[in-house]
Design brief:
Serine Threonine Protein Phosphatase 5, Tetratricopeptide repeat; 74% helix; 2% strand; TPR-like_helical_dom_sf
Amino acid sequence: MRQVIAANAYLEAGNIAKKYDKLEAIKHIEEAVNMYATIGRFSNCGKCEKNIAEIYEDLYDYDNASKYYKKAAYYFEMDEYSKSIYTQCIVKYAELNSQYNHEYEDAISIFEKEAEKALKSTLLQYGARDYYIKAGILHIVIGDLVNAKISIDKYCMNDPRFLNSREKKFLDNIIDAVTEQNVEEFEEIVHEYDRITKLDNWKVHFLYKIKSKLSVEPNVELTADGNVDLT
């Protein structure tokens, strides 16, 4: 009981410190993690690690942010009531780690595993498409188009509904444009997809990365909200 009270006190101190010294806040929250861990409060540990990850994101320290999202996922995985939060954290880790540390294979593996898990749930199964499109984009970024096609075929076997989905058509069309080194076709495919299904910043980042390999002098512009304009 004393350890719980002490851990709660460190966590509260950390949350207060966030307002004036974020690095000091992290020290307090890490103390809370250590205490929660000794008494098996893994969900509390996960929440604290997620808290730290978000602080590092606020500091634009994406390397540490990704590490702490992974730590949070580790603790949430040990708590049977925290599986959904585990998914949030491990996916966030994969997104940051691929975008800032270029760990593409690791991210692909995570996205594919989460897609397979989602397909087993009636409530979550439609979310598998987003994991598959992210994994597919990273396969294309790596540049192995043959393996990208094989992986997309595997996604269709795992989820027959993916076969006729907009996401699969989008990936197929992107692969064709890359194969033909056709920048204009690539831009048209991206804008047509984005017109109906808004692309998030993570996808835009990697689609621009793919496009930049197609054109010698890519024309980069930012939209009013700071996103990359692929045209």
